[in-house]
Structures are given as C-alpha cells and as structure tokens.
C-alpha cells in the first residue's frame, strides 16, 4: 500500500479543528480530569478517528466538486480505504492501552455510525431525516459523552444537568450541519443523496439553523443555571456574538443572491464559528481548571454542661475571701457581654464536697496539676471533636473520600494525638494525610484554613477535614490579676469541624469560595497575649491593651493590602472579648449590626479560642440569602504575638 500526498490530503486532518469544540467543552466540564488519558483521547479523536471518517467518506463518494475543507479534492485510490482501516484499528488499540475500555467502546460505536452514514451498502446520508439525526446524535451528544469518558475515565450519571448539556451539544451540531451542506445540493443530488438542507431550501436552511442554535442556547442556559453558573452562559454569548453577526450577514447575502451559498462563504462561516467556539471553551477550561478551594460545611459542638455567666462568676467569687478581688471579679464579669458558657467540667455549679475535678474545698487548693488537666483533655477532646464532625451532612459517605485531616488545639496535647484518635474513632482511611496546628491560639482556625486552601489548590479532588477543639475551662486557676480575671471570665469549651474541598458543594445556598489570606504580627503586643506551661496549668498573659492594638492596626492593615470595609457585606470576626469587638467595629466605622453573629456567639458561648471564629462563620453562612451571590465575607481572628489573621471569602 503506497500512501501519497493526495491520500493524506483526503483525510482532511485540519478539518478536525472544526470538530474540536465539543471535546474542549467536555474537558472544561468534566468533574475529574486524568490528564494523560485526556491527552491520548484528544490525539485519538482528532488525528485518527475524524481523519479516518473523512477519508472513508471521500473514498466512497469520490467527490469531484468541493467538499468540507477541500475546494478541489483529488480522486481517491484504494490506499485511502486501507489507510482508514489502519487508523481506526490503531485508534481502538491505543484507546484500550492508554485511555480506558469505555472510551474504546465509544470509538467502536462512533466508527460504526460513521461507516453506516457513508457506505454504499447502508448509505444513511441519502435519507434526509435519518442522515441528519445520525450526524446530530453522534457528532453532538455522543461525542460529548465519549469525550467525557476519555477525559475523566468514566461516564457521567444522566441527571437533569447532564441531559441539558447533551441536548445543547446535539442542537449545536443540528444548527451547524445543514449549513455545511448548503453549497452541495447539486453534487449531492448527482450522487443520489437528498439532504435536509436541500429539502429546506437555501432560505429554509438559514432559518432552521437559527432555530437550532436558539434551542442550543436554551439548553446551555438550563445546564449552567442548574449548576449555579449562570455567568458562564453569558460569557459564552460574548464569544458567540461574532458567529451570529457573520451568520446574519451571510443570510442577507444569500437572500439577495442564492449564489452566495457557496463553498468559500461556507468555509468562512466554519472558520469563524470554530475559532470563536474553541476560544470560548478554552476560556472555560482555564476558568474551571484554575485551582480553587471552597468551604463546603461547618458544624459545631459544645459539651453537655452549660453554665450561666452568673453561675461561673459565683464559682470564681467563692474561691476568694478578698473583697477587692471579689469586686474586680464582679466588675469584669458585668462587662463581658456573655450570658452562657460550656465546659467539660461538671463542678462549676456544685458544692465543694461534690467536686469531681477541683479539690473538694471552697478555696480550690491544692489546684489540679498540669498532668490532671491533660488527662481530662485527653478524655473529652476526642469525644467533643467527633460530635462536631459527625454533624456534617452525609459524613459517613464522605469520610472514605477525605484526603487530609488537620487538627487544631492549644489547650491540650497528648500522643498519639487527637488526629490519630479521630482516625480510629471515625474509621478514616489509615493513609489519610495528617497535620496539626498546635498552641497557636484563637486565630489557629484561619491558619488551618490557609493550609487547607493550599492543599486544595495544589491537589485536584482534595477534601480536607479541619477540626478545632479547645477545652479552655480545664485551665481555670485561682488567680486574681488582670490576666486571669479576663481568662477565667470569658473562656469556654467548644469544637468546630470544617470541610474544605477543591470542588464547590451545595451545602449552603451559595458555594463559599476561599479567596485570600493576610497576616500581621504586632511586635509591640508581644507580651500582651501569651501563655506558658506551668506545673499547675497555663500561665496566662491577656492584657487589656489588646483591643487598643487591634483598633489601631486593623484599618492600616486592610489599607496596606488594598481592602476597604465597604467592599464586604458580611463579617465573621473572632469575639476575643466584647471590647475587642466594639473597638474593631469602631476602627472600621462599621455599624455593629454587621457584627451581630460575632456578638451572638460571644453572648451564647464566650470565647472558645480557635473554634470560636468558625462558630461565627457558620452563623454567617447559614443566614445567606439568594441575593447575596457575589458578596464578599471578611473573617478575622487574633492570637498570641500579637498576631492578626484574616481570610476573605466569596459567595459564588
């Protein structure tokens, strides 16, 4: 078999460019992409399957006049027939070796349909309706389905959205195909082929094409809006505009002179359509394949023991006979803005003789040791964390797909740690990747989210579970300086679990996209928020200067990174204390109603250290409304050092 230049020419390989849009569209929409399979699928379809189909059609038809891609086609020889068989066979073998069986099966069906369309024995193309439907189905919906199989390694479930996109693809081909035949009427009739375009006539073909593209747009609109991606539909319309303009101009020319329905104008239409659609779907690929991360769920849990602020204040008051200390306790307690706090300790509303954790004396002496405090932490932290995690909707189905686990705590440590305990208790994948954020205080949740964001943006398909658990009340100590007055009267216990994913979820009314993070260390506040370990627990430094430091620095920090408070509609600010929240609002000139979730969490739970900002964010996200699409959320928390950590989110 000798292969000459004319034989290669009749494969019309450049014509694959006109058939490329649906593959690119499928690539842009596939939930998962196996890149090496996608590359082989692309090469097989466009360099083997399409050319073989073109070549076989040319061999059977022996066209003497212009055909798609060739104005003056050469006469085919027997070598063209053998070459098309070789290309088809090679395509199937490569598909089995380098892509997958489903994709190879789709190729077999596509080849069979292509041969049935052209062959003299079956000759589907000579029937206007059957031939039209064969092309529309196999070059439309079936090609999209086949491309998804090649790109992702599996077929998609035929849900409502996928039915819309398949119909959209088929109507796209239904509009384009008759238009490509509009100049071939005489040649087709000479070969005994009556096309749909001939039946419709010149003007009818243009009107039919306009109707098909309208229906294509309807189904694309339904598809993208069903996925909450309506903006993508309008992006597509921008790219389709030149096609519509030229189509209208060409229609005008044909209306005036039927001779304008010629090969050159048809090819010009093909090139404009292909360039615009390929460009459009490449943009969609860029948009959809830019690595992103989303907060897919936040759930919280608190211990069973709920205490009023009055009960906790009374417990503190009973620990001293010093009137000055009692007076200071009452003053500070009255200014906290807290009504309730939760604790794993059951002693705070009992008589001394019934204490289980503290020494059974009103003076609380001797105080529990650090060892005893860590023992109670180990006993309760896993249980509380598990309670928060298991509230995540569908967690039993999700847990096998988790790729990473990040645990966050600053109130207790043990080994094997909280991460390993949770893996055992929840029966997580033993190969899950683990990390911990320890001893970083109230803003550690944002630091953990920053790590999860980096993971999702570097690993497509990542699902990161973050668990922030703090048992602050186990560090209650019989001290009365300003640092301990604050810490004993504002801290509570709680846990929050966050699911961060590389793909958006429909847990909330809008997907919650993580945008950016920013940090600031205020070295002049180094000693104003700190703690150290001691034999009897943590030695706390929690200065009353902290609110002043935040108030003076938060606005300059935002200005330095180019942010203005009015750019954000929603705020999730860590309630480190009532004065911190008040001064934060004052510094940014915010109406306090914007910080209602922060005040609510402070009122009902107190400051639980790292999970607290997540309690606030959970309330913000659950109150989102349909009209909030596109709105931005500013999240901030404050920790030792003094450090400010911020995160920007967006409803999409």
TrEMBL record:
Keywords: Membrane, Transferase, Transmembrane, Transmembrane helix. It holds the Pfam family UbiA. The chain crosses the membrane at residues 80-113, 129-149, 161-179, 200-223, 229-255, 267-287. Residues 295-504 form the Chalcone/stilbene synthase N-terminal domain. GO terms for molecular function: acyltransferase activity, transferring groups other than amino-acyl groups; transferase activity, transferring alkyl or aryl (other than methyl) groups. GO terms for biological process: polyketide biosynthetic process. It is found in: Membrane. It is a multi-pass membrane protein. One of its GO terms (cellular component) is membrane. InterPro entries: Chalcone/stilbene_synt_C (IPR012328), Chalcone/stilbene_synt_N (IPR001099), Polyketide_synthase_type-III (IPR011141), Thiolase-like (IPR016039), UbiA_prenyltransferase (IPR000537). Residues 521-651 form the Chalcone/stilbene synthase C-terminal domain. Belongs to the thiolase-like superfamily. Chalcone/stilbene synthases family. PANTHER family: HYDROXYMETHYLGLUTARYL-COA SYNTHASE, TYPE III POLYKETIDE SYNTHASE A. This is Predicted naringenin-chalcone synthase. It comes from Dyadobacter psychrophilus.
């Amino acid at each position: 078999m000798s292969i000459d230049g004319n034989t290669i020419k009749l494969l019309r390989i450049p014509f694959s460019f006109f058939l490329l849009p649906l593959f690119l569209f499928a690539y842009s929409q596939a939930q998962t992409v196996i890149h090496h399979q996608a590359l082989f699928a692309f090469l097989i379809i466009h360099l083997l399957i399409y050319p073989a189909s073109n070549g076989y059609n040319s061999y059977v038809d022996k066209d003497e006049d212009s055909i798609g891609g060739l104005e003056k086609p050469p006469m085919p020889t027997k070598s063209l027939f053998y070459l098309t068989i070789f290309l088809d066979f090679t395509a199937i073998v490569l598909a089995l070796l380098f892509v997958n069986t489903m994709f190879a099966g789709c190729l077999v069906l596509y080849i069979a349909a292509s041969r049935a369309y052209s062959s003299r024995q079956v000759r589907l193309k000579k029937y206007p309706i059957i031939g039209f439907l064969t092309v529309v189905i196999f070059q439309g919906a079936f090609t999209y389905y086949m491309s998804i199989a090649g790109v992702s390694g599996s077929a998609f479930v035929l849900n409502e959205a996928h039915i819309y996109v398949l119909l959209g693809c088929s109507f796209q081909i239904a509009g384009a195909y008759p238009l490509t035949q509009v100049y071939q009427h005489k040649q087709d009739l000479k070969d005994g082929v009556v096309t749909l375009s001939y039946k419709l006539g010149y003007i009818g073909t243009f009107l039919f094409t306009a109707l098909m593209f309208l229906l294509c747009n309807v189904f694309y609109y339904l598809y993208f809006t069903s996925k909450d991606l309506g903006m993508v539909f309008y992006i597509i319309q921008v790219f389709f505009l030149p096609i519509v303009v030229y189509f209208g101009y060409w229609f005008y020319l044909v209306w005036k002179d039927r001779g304008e329905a010629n090969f050159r104008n048809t090819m010009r239409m093909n090139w404009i359509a292909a360039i615009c659609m390929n460009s459009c779907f490449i943009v969609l690929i860029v948009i959809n394949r830019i690595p992103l991360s989303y907060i897919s769920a936040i759930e919280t849990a608190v211990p069973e023991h709920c205490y009023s602020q009055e009960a906790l204040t009374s417990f503190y008051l009973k620990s001293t006979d010093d009137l000055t200390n009692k007076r200071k306790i009452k003053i500070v307690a009255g200014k906290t803005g807290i009504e309730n706090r939760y604790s794993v300790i059951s002693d705070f509303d009992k008589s001394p003789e019934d204490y289980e954790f503290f020494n059974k004396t009103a003076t609380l002496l001797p105080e529990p040791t650090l060892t005893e405090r860590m023992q109670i932490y180990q006993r309760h932290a896993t249980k509380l964390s598990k309670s928060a995690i298991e509230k995540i909707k569908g967690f039993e189905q999700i847990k096998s797909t988790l790729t990473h686990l990040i645990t966050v705590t600053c109130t207790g440590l043990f080994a094997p740690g909280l991460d390993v305990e949770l893996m055992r208790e929840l029966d997580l994948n033993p190969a899950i990747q683990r990390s911990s954020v320890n001893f970083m205080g109230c803003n550690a949740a944002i630091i953990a989210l920053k790590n999860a964001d980096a993971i999702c943006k570097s690993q497509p398909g990542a699902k990161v579970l973050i668990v922030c658990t703090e048992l602050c009340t186990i560090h209650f100590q019989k001290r009365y300086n300003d640092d301990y007055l604050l810490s004993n009267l504002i801290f509570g216990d709680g846990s929050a679990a966050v699911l961060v994913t590389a793909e958006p979820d429909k847990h909330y009314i809008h997907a919650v996209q993580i945008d950016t993070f920013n940090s600031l260390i205020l070295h002049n506040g180094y000693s104003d928020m700190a703690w150290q370990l001691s034999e009897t627990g943590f030695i706390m430094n929690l200065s009353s200067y902290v609110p002043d430091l935040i108030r003076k620095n938060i606005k300059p920090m935002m200005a330095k990174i180019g942010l203005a408070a009015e750019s954000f509609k929603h705020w999730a600010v860590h309630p480190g204390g009532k004065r911190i929240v008040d001064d934060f609002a004052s510094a940014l000139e915010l109406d306090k109603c914007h910080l209602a979730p922060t005040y609510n969490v402070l009122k009902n739970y107190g400051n639980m250290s790292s999970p607290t900002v997540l309690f606030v964010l959970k309330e913000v996200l659950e109150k989102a409304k349909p009209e909030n699409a596109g709105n931005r959320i500013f999240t901030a928390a404050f920790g030792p050092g003094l450090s400010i950590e911020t995160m920007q989110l967006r409803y999409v």
